[in-house]
Specification:
By secondary structure, the chain is mainly beta. The chain has one helix and 33 strands. This is PQQ-binding-like beta-propeller repeat protein.
Length: 409
């Protein structure tokens, strides 16, 4: 075999593996919508089978794991010491590399289904950004990969009987946080390097929003879709300028929006006091409440868990476990199945939907108009965090342990 051909073959295999490998750097992954390009993932596992490693997690929280290359980061709370803690693990073996205490303060009031460490961190490969609550103020802080604090910022106050669970979003040189609440309701962007506030948008209609924005190129411009301030709105993430908005459809939001590129539709559900699922054309200006809502339904509308979307189907679930498959173009329900109480959000990878529930069971579904289950996988403990996918592995945080799931060749 010629050396040039051999080298070219090795280079092709190396670049192919590199091209399909993805980090999972923030809430709902690189795209912020629960999707991954990784393909060589397990379909079957249990508490023993295809478990690469399993490690005990100190404290408790619903924060989901994030992954950058060989490091995994997790947010947790020690209710005995009243500390909020950032953890860093080795992805290869599950060893805890370091942990650093972010805050020691009286635990705030919260909803019984919430935790004291529910917001998911974000990383750009240089620093880890995390947001938490000291009982009065929203705190956003940056740490390097050795656990050293680089900066800390208080962009505003927060007030909610449900507690705190907002996750930062990264865009270019900015860390963006949703501070929508009954207090100093706002949204703000901070400089990633030093934490200085770049822009802050006050909200005139305080409510509860725990929704994490998504950022997309739509209608030829970069848009950040924010659910809060009793509206669904598009902002310019560079300046905080509002581009368009849809009133309501009710007061509160929990889940994150998704964007269907094939049909150019934003899919958003409100949470309380009514749940409305809307499909919106993202090419408007100003108030588009009566002009750009393509369809609206209460059937299949979701509350806490965020959905996943294929080209033609949207997969949603309520906390009661009623999973709906809807037609993206018109909102018609294709099928409904009961998969058990669920607060964690589904992921889409390997051309499959991985749908977890609170009992630690992940149902693997083949997308399509027929309900087709390929596997039901148990980890042996309860969970509320959402899965992360990277390095050909699925990382799941249970109530007590962190699991790395992969193919045992």
């Amino acid at each position: 075999m010629k050396k040039g051909f051999l080298f070219g073959s090795i280079l092709y295999l190396w670049t192919s593996c590199f091209a399909t490998a993805q980090n999972w750097p923030n809430w709902r992954g690189e795209n912020g919508d629960g999707t991954s390009l990784e393909t060589n993932l397990p379909v079957l596992w249990d508490a023993n089978t295809n478990i690469i490693w399993k490690t005990k997690v100190p404290g408790f929280g619903h924060s989901s794991p994030i992954v950058w290359e060989d490091k995994l980061f997790l947010f947790t709370a020690d209710t005995e010491t009243q500390e909020r803690i950032l953890l860093c693990y080795n992805c290869n073996n599950g060893d805890l590399i370091w942990q650093t205490s972010l805050l020691k303060a009286k635990l705030e009031d919260k909803h019984s289904d919430n935790s004291y460490a529910s917001g998911t961190p974000a990383t750009d490969g240089k620093m880890v950004y995390v947001s938490f609550f000291d009982g009065e103020n929203v705190i956003v802080a940056a740490y390097d990969f050795s656990g050293k604090e680089i900066w800390r910022q208080n962009p505003g106050t927060f007030s909610s009987p449900h507690g705190y669970s907002c996750s930062p979003v990264l865009f270019e040189d900015k860390v963006i946080i949703n501070g929508n609440s009954l207090g100093d309701s706002f949204m703000a962007a901070m400089n990633k390097t030093n934490g200085k506030i770049i822009w802050k948008v006050p909200h005139e209609n305080p409510a509860h929003s725990f929704s994490t924005p998504i950022i997309r190129e739509m209608n030829g411009i970069t848009q950040m879709i924010f659910c809060g301030n009793r509206e669904i709105a598009s902002y310019d993430p560079n300046t905080g300028t509002k581009i368009w908005f849809v009133d309501g459809p009710s007061e509160d939001f929990c889940s994150s929006p998704v964007y269907n590129k094939k049909h150019d539709l934003l899919l958003v559900s409100s949470a309380w006091p009514q749940r409305h699922l809307l499909a919106i054309k993202p090419d408007g200006k100003g108030d588009v409440s009566e002009t750009h809502v393509v369809w609206r339904t209460t059937k299949g509308a979701y509350y806490v868990p965020s959905p996943v979307c294929t080209d033609d189907y949207l997969y949603t679930t309520m906390t009661n476990g009623r999973v709906h498959c809807l037609n993206v173009t018109n909102g018609d329900i294709v099928w409904i199945e009961d998969m058990g109480k669920q607060y964690s959000s589904a992921v889409l990878a390997n051309d499959l939907v991985y749908m977890p529930n609170d009992e630690g069971v992940t149902t693997v579904i083949k997308p399509g108009p027929e309900f087709t289950v390929l596997a039901k996988n148990e980890i042996g403990e309860k969970m509320n965090a959402s899965p992360a996918i990277s390095n050909g592995k699925i990382y799941i945080r249970g109530y007590e342990h962190l699991f790395c799931i992969g193919k045992n060749d």
